[in-house]
Amino acid sequence: MKEFKVTDHILVPKHEVLSKEEKIELLKKLNISEKQLPKIFDSDPVVKEIGAKIGNVIKITRNSPVAGKSIYYRIVIKSE
Amino acid sequence: MYKRIAAINFGLLSPKVIKKMATVEITRYDLYDKDGYPVEGGVMDPRLGVVDPGLRCRVCGGGVGTCLGHFGYLELARPVIHVSHVKTIYKILRSTCEKCGRVLETPEELKKSDNPLYDLYVAKKTKCPHCGAKQRKIKLQKPYTFTIDDKPLTPLEIREWFERIPDEDLKLLNIKGGRPEWLIITLLPIPPVTVRPSITLETGERSEDDLTHKLVDIVRINQRLKDNISIGAPDFIIDDLWELLQYHVATYFDNNLSGVPQARHRSGRALRTLAQRLKGKEGRFRNNLSGKRVNFSSRTVISPDPMISINEVGVPEVVAKELTVPIKVNKRNISFLKSIIKKGPNAIDGANYVIRPDGRKKKITEENKNEIAEEIDIGYSVERHLKDGDIVVFNRQPSLHRMSMMAHKVRLTPWRTFTLNLCVCAPYNADFDGDEMNLHVPQTEEAQTEAKRLMLVENHIRSPRFGGPLIGCIQDHISGNYLLTKKETKIKKEDAIQILQNIGIEADVTRDLTGKELFSYLLPKDLNMEFKSNACIGCEKCDKEKCPYDYYVVIRNGELKNGVIDSKAIGREKGLIVDLIEKKYGSSKAREFLDRVSKLGINFLSRHGFTIGLSDVEVPAEAKRKIKKAVEESERECGILIKNYEKGEVKQIPGQTIKESLETHILKTLRKVLDKASDIIEENIKENCAVVMAKSGARGSMLNLTQLAGCIGQQTTQGERINRGYKMRTLPHFKRGELSPDAHGFVPSSFKDGLNPFEFFFNAMNGREGLMDKSLRTRKSGYMERRLVNALQDLKVEYDGTVRDDRGVIVQFTPGEDKIDPSKSEWGGINIDRIIEDEMGKGA
For the CA atoms of B462, B464, B467, B472, what is the dihedral angle to 10 degrees? Predict the structure, then answer.
């Protein structure tokens, strides 16, 4: 089978790993602990591809039909 | 001081604990002796608690209310399995060694796993890594029998097996809250009588609770088993009794086990045992804990009242005398409250109760009303009758969205039904064919204010579903305004004065008015807008103000200059004027406009006269001929298509078989006839009441009229021509395999001309499918709604603009991704052009 990158697919939005400082800043801004962030498994194909590790926060920039662009954050957790 | 719960621990009761909590050992299966007193050691032992008023508990000395009851216990002759735990028992059996009781895996391996019990259950080992014993195959025969290598494994053996499992291994298996052998019941706790009270019937007979019946069965079988064991009865008798005991204990917990016959009452009714008490819609959770019965509420039939505001609800005086609002007595209102009390409980605007400062309630009667009026002082509360202007919450089930419960202002009526304005039928989905609605009275000032600010009808004119007005004019309101605002309509001076008076506008009218001028009285003086009306036929080039049909609406400085007012202007889900007024002047003004415009429509219509009849669907013979020609033409086309098909020359549509392509082609041809017929009817029909309704969007459509006057068209089931019925044909009157339009549900007749039997049958098929779809859809969507509500009920937009659940976990970083509340938006967005125009003036 032909190999391909999932991030190349048009339906997969832009995923970026936040740096440690950015992560701390985000948590501080929202006044939350890591547990309160939405989660994503480390086994997720995109997570594997961009090389995010457990505990990293991923910034997802989605195209939204109502807002044009919307930003979402998810924290990488261990898969079951 | 209240006791504070520090933690809750779920686990199993050990036999030791069961014995410790118990006050009685149950040994006898009879309930009462021959004098009717409960037997000591029986299931109704008096030491299990008190249910009869007046008696004292022998254990704790409490009375009915204060003594919560006490547990007893029953020593089972042989242990049985707890049905609710069979799965866990099975998993433990598969995960441990049958000989040494150790876990069938090395601790190192297990530590890697998140759910060792499950992993071991899936990967069944055949050899114990600790003692090397071979593991036999264990099977669970639903619902509660275990076998080992196809030989039965008794609860006694299972219990011994579990006792061998060391505590350290339980930790490895993630088993917390008790020892596994406690999953096998040796001591059965007997619940206090307070949870299974017996009822004394009028005849003096006692009727016992279902649980008591079940417990008696258990105790009786247990006794027989015990006796048989002690006399050394043969094994098969003991096994049979043991099995029976297992059955009774199992159904005591859950009487709805698959594969087990239900335990029944003497009358044949299935017993309601422990699981049934908790489960489902009628169970403890959904019926008694999530939802409760309420006071200060009322329910009756509803009827319409076009003269009250949409903010109001008509409440019958008889209802108002039952529903009360508590008012605290203070310096300022004491004389007023005294006067109310003096009116008594039977007068309108009276009072029913006073509450003394110590919290005791006293009923006001005709006899003591003057006495009580003298008694009250600051610190008292008076429960006064509902009166005009009180805030109440009005609701119609099913409560599918937030507009199903809105706050209204009370308006007392002398009749016996709740009345509501016709414009609020839409959000409640109410009609008056016998619908009933509920009314709730908020009891505190805080609740009343909250209801008024957040729930009042006028605050819900704009729907959060699509950001437009959900509440708007309907039916006659629209017909009336349409006829009123037509170019040729003139209103006599006297009529205009009277109409304006009726809708609550004071104005000096000095001359005869046009309909448009009269309508303009309702508009705010600085309103400007332009739009195409509902009746607009969509010409290729729009002449705007100079529209020859007067279908282009222009409002300049609150004057209706051009165009007719119809559903596009004031109707629900469209109403552009309502929409703009709500946005520009606020919901209060929008409510006022709606109240007036609906009254205006009705007032004008009742002067003008409005009716429909058979003559409304009459068309000239010329038009009928044209339709007939169009039908024949398309039938001919279909004939050609069918001939081509037989010759094998059909244009095949990608993704469809040749037969399917043919069907699609035929369906398309026949659909076209209906459009053509619709055009012919529209051209030829006189403008009468039915047409007015269709054009203005008040009720019905041009298609409805076409079907009445011209041609019904193709009937379908599941989007296809009718293809079912007999072998190769729809009805036995057709040739087998016939493909012609007639044979597959094409109806060329109109409802007015009448249908022949075949046509009627096809039409009935079509109609039945619609009916079926509707009922299935409501059921499906009701369940979907329930699941959605359960999943989303705790979500909340926090002050920092994030959406979080009850644990504080973020679900969305920006609500709805765009931070727009659709119920405060314009059709789901923000209309910047409008705002700029408003602020800077036109052309900026």
Answer: -30
